[in-house]
């Protein structure tokens, strides 16, 4: 059942109450129901975006240059951030679970082998086909000692979880309640959650007794609820010196170089393609684990992208048409996620040369568009992005690098409150020099591989002496909200254990990107969905 408000709700009857109906919350609810448990799924927003709900997530950004606006970072509505998600699905790498002295000292309390069995379930929920994350590319390119060119990202055919699983969410064992916002927790002397205090659409407060609770409302909002609980009970989660709110990470993303491929065949190998396993995929270039350790690198992936579409000097009518599209939010977000659209948009760019490109190159643009529209919006397998091969075989080189866990990169409650009286967050996402220096070393390693295997070459957009500054200027994120309620081995260094149970609140679990101790080179969504599936199985053993 999917309803608005709490009218008719049998309080305390659900085995599991899940806070947040995004990818993690929806997966956890459906998996718990599949295991025979009754579920109450609470969502603060409605089926569509409402400003009143979205404004509850406003926060103070200490440095707006390093963090996206919260309207791009958080979606308070049914489906959560899957409404903002581009649909890229990857599993973590073995090296993400290991300590790398001098660079990454965080350690997961589990190994990748404990999570691997749940990636298949995660792929099913993410609508991205089978859990196959490699594709052969030919022995002439492979060099396991340097760079792995066989890794692929899968892409969702239906990124919006509430749409993909609409029928299942109407199950009799799942009670979905929209427009219900959790504002407080009532704890027993034993530390267990006894009841939730919620606000309905009328903004009145209601007391909702619970059995087991799982917070699944995204990295920042999950952490915010835990911080509110800690404010009332200062000794929870390691107290003032604990890790809650600390180690805030995202990813370093951007471009500081172009890549030229030596042949058209190699360039085509890095385009989107259907691999026969149920979705589009795309190859990425990732330094081998051995090379990362040898060169003290952070985990980073590279892939080619179209040259900056805002610069009409590219002469392509198709790229100019794409830029005219991303200028307008309503249309641009149909092409790419809003955060990507913002990165491509450049205020003040003259439209005249773009219009000239479109008119001059109209035949090729007109020939491309029907196929793109069909594959993007009508095909069963959804084309996930925009990439155009060019005769020069030169492209921008995008990077996606993990961020060093930094104790001083953090979020905390400030003196402001939202319209429901819940304290707001202050956010300070910091990128120190270790991140940029490791990224530059990764570019050097990639150059070595390109030259050794005669794959192509790099062309830096900045003088060598300015590369670190260029990386730092592009270092901003906020969509991948990682590390602020990390899992670990004890309450002094972590918030939850390997089964996502809060150390200090026995019937409370947290499933979001906030629990990940490291960020890896992969986006976190598929891993969070896998963690939700794993948690559901664990909760079954407690039932």
- Cα(first) to Cα(last) distance is 22 Å
Instruction: Provide mean pLDDT, rounded.
Output: 92
Helix percent reads 25-40%
Helical/strand content category: alpha/beta
- List how many beta strands DSSP finds: 23
Beta-strand share of residues? 15-25%
Q: Judging from the principal axes of the Cα atoms, what is the shape?
A: globular
Report low-confidence residues grouped into runs of 5 or more: none
Major β-sheet, in short? 7 strands, antiparallel
The number of helical runs is 18
Explain this structure.
The chain is of the alpha/beta class. It has a domain at 307-378. Strands 6, 13, 14, 17, 18, 19 and 22 form a seven-stranded antiparallel beta sheet that branches. The model has no long low-confidence stretch (mean pLDDT 92).
List the helices and strands and how they pair.
Blueprint: E1 2-4, E2 16-19, H1 23-34, E3 39-42, H2 51-54, E4 60-61, H3 70-73, E5 88-89, H4 112-115, H5 119-126, E6 147-148, E7 152-155, H6 161-164, H7 166-169, E8 174-178, E9 181-187, E10 193-199, E11 205-209, E12 212-215, H8 219-232, E13 251-254, E14 257-261, H9 264-269, E15 273-274, E16 280-283, E17 285-287, H10 289-295, E18 300-305, H11 317-326, H12 329-335, H13 338-344, H14 352-360, H15 362-378, E19 394-402, E20 410-417, E21 423-428, H16 433-452, E22 456-460, H17 467-474, E23 508-510, H18 525-542
Parallel strand pairs: 1-8, 2-3, 2-12, 3-8, 4-21, 12-23
Antiparallel strand pairs: 5-7, 6-17, 7-16, 9-10, 10-11, 13-19, 14-19, 14-22, 15-16, 17-18, 18-19, 20-21
Helix pairs in contact: 1-18, 5-18, 11-14, 16-17
